[in-house]
Design goal:
By secondary structure, the chain is an alpha+beta fold. It is built from five helices and six strands; from the N terminus they run H-E-E-H-E-H-H-E-H-E-E. The model has no long low-confidence stretch (mean pLDDT 88).
Length: 194
């Protein structure tokens, strides 16, 4: 096992602190949204990933309808319309705020693909004459899974890993004689975003 340098320990400590701060900010943000808009954003998935110069906390979830007395009596078409009104309300709210060192944005899950469009969408009679943009807009109109991204500058995991392995790794190759993977002298750049 590789021995950690003091610089690596320092980077890990700083990163850990920034992650905790971002988690506290996330909790406060969700409370603010509920207090100001009466919208309860339910987080079903929460992860971190590296971006240039920092990290991003991604919250995947939806707006709860528990406190919405009207939505149960609406048709499917009007339900989606109401969901989109809530999404736009939340988007406008987040865009109007300044969160200091955090950059907050919201979007819908992109649950559409060229394969689905070619093999299913345009083969249905009601969709004849529609194009890719019609398909994409329809999918987004009906999408209720939302993603809030919280970005901040600082130390990302890629920088920590680069300190550990230099940002390079040895290339493995399958040996037909031994029938095992063996390490070669060839080196590849991992091209991590820092």
């Amino acid at each position: 096992m590789l021995k950690e340098s003091s610089k690596l320990k320092e980077l890990k400590t700083i990163r850990k602190g920034l992650i905790k701060e971002s988690n506290d900010f996330k909790n406060e943000l969700l409370k603010e949204i509920f207090k100001d808009l009466d919208l309860d954003f339910i987080v079903s998935y929460n992860d971190l990933y590296s971006i240039k110069g920092g990290e991003c906390r991604r919250l995947k979830g939806y707006i709860s309808n528990l406190n919405d007395d009207v939505i149960g009596s609406l048709s499917n078409k009007n339900k989606f319309k109401r969901e989109n009104e809530k999404f736009n309300k939340l988007k406008d709210y987040l865009n109007s705020k300044d969160y200091g060192k955090y950059e907050v944005e919201i979007c819908k899950l992109n649950d559409y693909s060229w394969y689905d469009y070619k093999n299913w969408f345009i083969k249905r009679e009601e969709n004849w004459g529609k194009n890719w943009f019609d398909y994409k807009n329809e999918r987004l109109e009906k999408e209720t899974t939302l993603i809030i991204k919280i970005k901040w500058k600082g130390i990302n995991m890629n920088r920590v890993l680069n300190e550990l392995d230099g940002g390079f790794s040895k290339v493995g190759k399958y040996c037909s004689v031994t029938r095992k993977w063996v390490m070669t002298d060839e080196i590849k750049d991992l091209k991590r975003v820092v």
